[in-house]
Amino acid sequence: MTDTRVVVVGAGPAGMLLSHLLDAAGIDNVVLERQSQAHVLGRIRAGVLEWGTVETLRAAGLGDRMDAEGHVHDTINIAWRGEEVLGINTHDLVGTRMMAYGQTRIQEDLFAAASDRGAEVIFEADDVALHDLDSDGPCVTYGGGERITCDFVAGCDGFHGVSRVSIPYGIRTEYEKVYPFGWLGILSETPPLSNLLYANHERGFALCSMRNPMLSRYYVQAPITDTVDDWSDDRFWTELFARLPVSQSEHIVTGPSIEKSLAPLRSYVCEPMRWGRLLLAGDAAHIVPPTGAKGLNLAVSDVRYLARAIATHYAGDDTYLDRYSSMALRRVWGSVRFSWWMTNLLHRFPDQTEFDQRAQEQELAYLASSVHAQRAMAEQYVGLPYE
Ligand code: FAD
Ligand code: PHB
């Protein structure tokens, strides 16, 4: 006897999309989320969707508002050596575009779809604990003694969740790199630049991004020991402008920030992504620094593989279930490597030597001079194909 087939831990984009795809396949599931719905919706995070993510959301019936409000774009600008700006047009180079559509909006769309289909999403579920994951009958407990038995537990509970750490130490291997700086990000209700702009500058990295025609997202590299209180809006704008070519900053409209946060940068992978009846997806299994705009896209790609693996299991075929971890990890490592490469290309490291500096400049010069290098970057930025 099972209470449900799949318990999904975490109602972020990975958990809610998995629940959506499982319901579409007629597979019962319950989502357990530690926070309130308002808290989940209040987190400002990703902004750039790979085209594969766009198509996955459309195919799941989640594309209407994205197509109406999202901004399709095809150029990433890279500023370096003061005034130079290199444009990478992904459509010209590899035939694919990207979509600017905020994670907050995707999260709203997923919650609206869940409410329409009467999905069981339990918010403010405290003390979630996973049991008997290496048996055929796992169960999940939470709150003051609630208990759900199931066939599978999907660990979609982000980097600080309980799922990954339920895999015994001897079984999981962790690969990690922590970067010696963070990103201070603001949202402002001002018109964004028309293209994404990444800047390599001696004062540190900067990024100009967008949410919609009246909402801009900007980031500057900052010491991880800083707090948001160290960064008044004035200080932020002054620092951003100091790191950008005038040809770009002259188009920026400043205004009060409506959100400000400091994010650490980390690369992390847990292998394997499956242990017995526990299957990990999204940030629960891996973290990338945001430089490559990959985290949310990887969460969606894991969930694509995972939903198919679970659906085919119930149709009597375990091939995809048995291959889930290795298939997902191939794509994960592709994005982990790319995000690490972009982070190294664009940031100033506190211990950067003259040699490192010259090598970084040469890498940028090579990228600017070689259409092959640009194509390799564009191909990875818009996302490698799914298996
Ligand atoms: P999460 O969004 O972390 O969701 C996990 C959920 O599980 C949360 O709601 C959490 O409350 C819940 N949870 C945790 N512990 C428990 C528990 N014990 N019990 C129950 N529930 C629990 N990615 C991109 O693709 N493109 C970008 O442009 C981009 N920019 C970013 C910019 C910033 C500043 C940051 C911080 C991230 C960015 N990302 C980007 C990364 C992206 O936001 C994440 O990769 C994405 O949120 C992962 O989704 P997830 O569902 O796996 O995890
Ligand atoms: C964002 O819009 O928040 C964003 C864009 C590109 C990145 C990271 C974040 O690389």
What's this entry about, in short?
By secondary structure, this protein is α+β, with helices and mostly antiparallel strands. The chain has helices at residues 13-24, 37-42, 51-59, 64-69, 90-94, 103-117, 233-242, 246-249, 295-314, 319-346, 354-369, 371-381, and strands at residues 6-9, 29-32, 48-49, 71-73, 75-80, 84-89, 98-100, 120-122, 129-131, 139-142, 146-149, 152-155, 173-188, 196-199, 206-212, 215-222, 257-271, 274-275, 278-280, 286-287.
Question: Any key phrases for this structure?
Answer:
alpha+beta; globular; six-stranded mixed β-sheet; single chain; 12 helices
Task: List strands and helices in order, with pairings.
Layout: E1 6-9, H1 13-24, E2 29-32, H2 37-42, E3 48-49, H3 51-59, H4 64-69, E4 71-73, E5 75-80, E6 84-89, H5 90-94, E7 98-100, H6 103-117, E8 120-122, E9 129-131, E10 139-142, E11 146-149, E12 152-155, E13 173-188, E14 196-199, E15 206-212, E16 215-222, H7 233-242, H8 246-249, E17 257-271, E18 274-275, E19 278-280, E20 286-287, H9 295-314, H10 319-346, H11 354-369, H12 371-381
Parallel strand pairs: 1-2, 1-12, 2-8, 5-14, 12-19
Antiparallel strand pairs: 3-7, 4-7, 5-6, 9-10, 10-11, 13-16, 13-17, 14-15, 15-16, 17-20, 18-19
Helix pairs in contact: 1-6, 1-9, 9-10, 11-12
Bound molecules: flavin-adenine dinucleotide (FAD) and P-hydroxybenzoic acid.
Provide structural commentary:
This protein is of the alpha+beta class. It is built from twelve helices and 20 strands. The protein has an eight-stranded mixed sheet, sandwiched between helices. Strands 8-2-1-12-19-18 form a six-stranded mixed sheet, with helices on one face. It has a three-stranded antiparallel sheet with strand order 3-7-4. A hairpin with a 3-residue loop joins strand 5 and strand 6 (84-89). Helix 1 packs parallel to helix 9 (295-314), helix 9 runs antiparallel to helix 10 and helix 11 (354-369) crosses helix 12 (371-381). The longest helix is centred in the last third of the chain and has 28 residues, at 319-346. It starts with 5 loop residues before the first strand and ends in a 6-residue tail after the last helix. The relative contact order is 0.17. The model has no long low-confidence stretch (mean pLDDT 97). Residues 46-48, 207, 209, 217, 290-291, 293 line the site of P-hydroxybenzoic acid.
